[in-house]
Amino acid sequence: MNIAANPVIEADQTIYLKDYQKPSYLVDSIHLDIQVFAEYTQVNSKLVMQRQTAGDLVLLGRDLELKSIHVNSQPLLENQYHLDTEQLIIPNAPDIAVVETSVIIHPESNTQLEGLYQAAGDLFVTQNEPEGFRKITFYPDRPDVLSVFTTRVEADKKFPVLLANGNLIEKGEVGENRHYAIWQDPTKKPAYLFACVIGDLAVLKDHYVTSEGRNVALEIYAEEKDIPKCHIAMEALKHSMRWDEEHYGRPYDLDNYMIVATSAFNMGAMENKGLNIFNTSCVLADEEYTTDAAIMRVQSVIAHEYFHNWTGNRITCRDWFQLCLKEGLTVFRDQSFSEDLQSAAVQRIDDVAVLKAHQFPEDSGPLSHPPRPDHFVEINNFYTATVYEKGAEINRMMATLLGKEKFRKGTDEYFKRHDGQAVTVEDWVEALTAGSGVDLSAFLTWYNQPGTPKLEAKGVYDAAHQTYTLSFKQSLKAHPKYPNLKAVPIPVALALFNAETGEQLVLNSEALFENGVKDGVYLFDQDQATIQFKDVKVQPIVSLLRNFSAPVNLEFNYSDADLAFLLQFETNGFNQWQAAQTLLERILLNNHDAEVYVQAMKDTLPVLIEKDPLLASRLFDVPSEGYLGSRIDADYNPAVIQEKRNALLSTLANELGSFCKETYLALDPDSQKEFSQAMGVRALKNILLAMIARQGDRSAFELAEAQYNHTCNMSERLGALRVLVWNDAPQASAVLNDFYNRFKDEALSIDQWFMVQAAHPKATAETIKALTEHSDYDLGTPNRIRSVSGGLNANPVNTWSFGVQHFIELAKYLDEKNPIVGSRLLQVLSRWYTLAEPQRSQVKVELEALKPLVKSKNVSETLSSMLNV
Ligand code: B3K
Ligand code: ZN
After folding, report:
1. Would the pTM of this model clear 0.70, i.e. be above it?
2. Nearest residue CA, atom 7 of ligand 1?
3. Are 432 and 489 in contact (CB under 8 A)?
4. Which class is 318-448 in CATH?
5. Atom 3 (ligand 1): residue with closest C-alpha?
6. What's the average model confidence in pLDDT over 141-160?
7. Would you kindly state where each structural domain of the chain is located, as residue ranges?
8. What CATH fold (topology level) applies to the domain 25-199?
9. Active-site residue, selected from the candidate residues 305, 327, 393, 570
């Protein structure tokens, strides 16, 4: 009997992209037989393998107890193979080898939530991306090995639901108490897309007829009480199916599509072929129990996983370095889908806000890496904002440059060329180039180098010659590991406005053409360049990077008055928001006067609230303390930022005075027909309520209490709860108790209850201790850990004081129990080196002290990168 235990970290386990080699064997088919028992699970597998290149036959396996192994029906003697903690190697294997293994695994004690694990008493699920399948059976577990899977699942009848990918081809009984189901997936797929589910769940059923006439059975599995909360996800699924047909010409290819919800999940969801597994937080949506933001997220994640069926599943990645090929493209696709669901400008604002709050800091610190990394120790550490969000931006830039029609021709070519294959980023860019007829090869530079480019621009108006000259310069901060940084192609969407009237200028199209400005987009792909607009009869104000046409840091010599002008007159909602953000950042970080912003808001809001209340609500977004901290590279003092931000919030509350209360009282979300409009009104009301409270107006508490009590909508209830709790209103503890009692059986709502308290502006170490000692706190449920840790981290003063210990303790505890989540939580501290002394050195000592205590590749790699500044 051999046990492949957890690997011990060795000196250098770095894997390099340049070392990629084809697998020596392919797998034509795999038959899996998974028998679940209370104390163990037995997995028998039969792989039909064929030699492709010279070399040993290599099967990867981790934490597997090998009971038997046969090749071409002959038992393999111990001296005929090598087994270590990570792989089983068979030298001199025949060219056609039928490999049969039997192993024992322990899903019932798998806390890492990777491979097959028991998620709750009555539920077993899998998570195999990127390398979980090797924890189920021995297999060439790499994305470029595609095979046809047949799966037999057997379990006690107390688990009535037995699911795997593909079509159900047989089911039956095994003795009195056990039963089985056999599933076959006709599509070849890599092992990371394998899934099975064994449990006791209820199901919501529907169906969808594809553009090709295929009638697809749709099923969402969840706990019985949660089935009513699955309708929004079901509608979003049908909508996504139609959307992908209409926008990319991609119909669904199987007769069923199943989604299973579980609360024990490390991330949002997983796109297993025809059998998605979702975190409950990304599938359950209901106005009474979950917020508007959560409802939007459910729709976008449902779409994201569905869109993977083509971008990820039918065309997959050759190796894990290419992760952003499927993730960047699929995020771009889900963002575009969501832009159709609500105010497109607000969707863009929210996506860019995430990019700037997470990806920009990541890319300027020790965890910076190219969207396509060229080396890693633990691939799970590379499911990052850079791979996902910056990856999406690269696709958006190419799409912007090509325009709708050519982009579609490019994607059509990609699907035509590579359906059924495991490919690279180069294959994608080449197909787009061939299909569109536009050479996009320069965009590969974006994939291959790290860092956020700085885009410096200057504008000069010459009234005598009626010209407006714009000059551009791009640069990247030097990076020790990437000495040859190159200029990247930057699509700059722009418009000129008449400074007197606020109207957009219609420009001389011939001159635009000469300058290379097409459809309002100038492609800046040199280190420096200048363009000139002619016949500009009035002083213009330029709006640059409209809709955030490239993921760069823009520096332009705007006056505050110019920004106020853009806040009011830009017709691109994203750039209105960007102007507000720049003004607010200047007030907070460069001590500019708040008056210009306040006046611009007064001038803009009355009309905008009528037209687009959601966009109006976003114009109030005062950059968070965390975001502001990420803009500071040295001598960062979180308390100073907090003080300035609080002062600004008070100024705004006072300056906007009676406007807030009058508007609050006049707004009624129930009078809106569209969900997105009602959501906007709710968002606005919550902001205004917080402002009224900040003015010190005691009636705010009564308004909040009334809002809390007279609604069935979670966004309204939570908005009111926050105002009462965060301002220590006399009603605070009563509403907290009420909320708890109302929702005690609703895990997602209770997550919010934890978060509100952890994010209290005056939360102390004791507050957090009390929450983590609460009987509903559970270190086995990532959602619950994130609710408290996320709440704590909303206040960087806390993060960088007692929070340091909190996150280090979590990383230590999770290092063995759940290293994926442990590594992720530790990253909260990655900007420690920007702190002012003595905090900087204190945190460094604590991080150094953690080093010898952690063993997982996940946490160790993150920690050593973090310390390598
Ligand atoms: N592809 C999965 C992510 C898997 C993460 C593994 N640590 C979800 C998604 O991006 O759709
Ligand atoms: Zn994805």
Report:
1. yes
2. 380
3. no
4. mainly alpha
5. 270
6. 98
7. 25-199, 318-448, 454-550, 761-869
8. Immunoglobulin-like (2.60.40)
9. 305
